[in-house]
Write a structure and sequence with these properties.
Length: 234
């Protein structure tokens, strides 16, 4: 076969592969938005982009993706956990933010040790363990400068009695953690088991420095979709 013919076929195959990947990402995004109609569709889009970036880097595909929208108040269910294979919603839950991130509304985020604040970005889950907060799930931050101190900070998923609808109603907010995405004790074990061993968690807030600088959501060098701040109609 002539060399120019080989080159043409290789280019065509590459373009087809890129097209298939893009179509998959678009269809996945649409399916997750449909599964969680009360979620911000643009936040879901950023989470899907982040997960696709990991695939582009040669990582093993995750089976589950958790999305936390910290632009919402702690009194709202702002955690969604998706089954990526079935494209279904597994959990829609309350989730805590760090005590130095804010009261009912989170607005301050940190990657620093002892900050007692939530960190933004994409995480990969690791193994489970039983510790001070009971059954817990370690997480590895994948974004340098934004959440890559998560393991050192012991930022984990765990159950906490202060994550409670009753507390939200009586106090105007749920309790706050030391930076961990704590959930209701009643569902903690089941949720952790669905998310352990290499799944992805995407922690979002419309922080412009992170949106512009994140190596995960900007891995294709395209402009990040503008996601408005709370109260501006997104």
């Amino acid at each position: 076969m002539p060399l120019n013919r080989v080159g043409f076929l290789m280019t065509a195959m590459l373009l087809m592969s890129i097209s298939v990947e893009a179509a998959y990402a678009d269809s996945l995004e649409a399916a997750l938005v449909k599964a969680a109609p009360d979620a911000n569709a643009r936040v879901i889009a950023l989470a899907v982009r982040a997960s696709q970036c990991r695939l582009a880097q040669g990582e093993v595909p995750a089976q589950r993706l958790a999305v936390i929208d910290y632009s919402l108040p702690s009194t709202e269910q702002r955690l969604w956990v998706f089954d990526l294979q079935r494209r279904t919603l597994l959990f829609h839950e309350l989730v805590a933010h760090g005590r130095n991130s804010g009261e009912n509304m989170a607005s301050q985020f940190s990657n620093q040790n002892e900050s007692k604040a939530t960190s933004l970005g994409l995480y990969r889950t690791r193994s489970t363990y039983v510790g001070h907060n009971g059954y817990s799930l370690r997480m590895e931050g994948l974004e340098p400068g934004f959440n890559d101190h998560a393991l050192d900070r012991a930022i984990v998923i765990h159950g906490a009695p202060y994550v409670s609808p009753d507390l939200a109603r009586s106090n105007g907010r749920i309790g706050r953690s030391l930076g961990c995405p704590a959930v209701r004790p009643a569902i903690a074990h089941q949720l952790i088991d669905s998310m352990k061993d290499g799944q992805l968690l995407f922690s979002y807030y419309p922080d412009q420095r992170w949106l512009k600088s994140s190596s995960i959501i900007n891995c294709d060098n395209s402009t990040v979709a503008e996601v408005s701040k709370p109260g501006t109609g997104y």
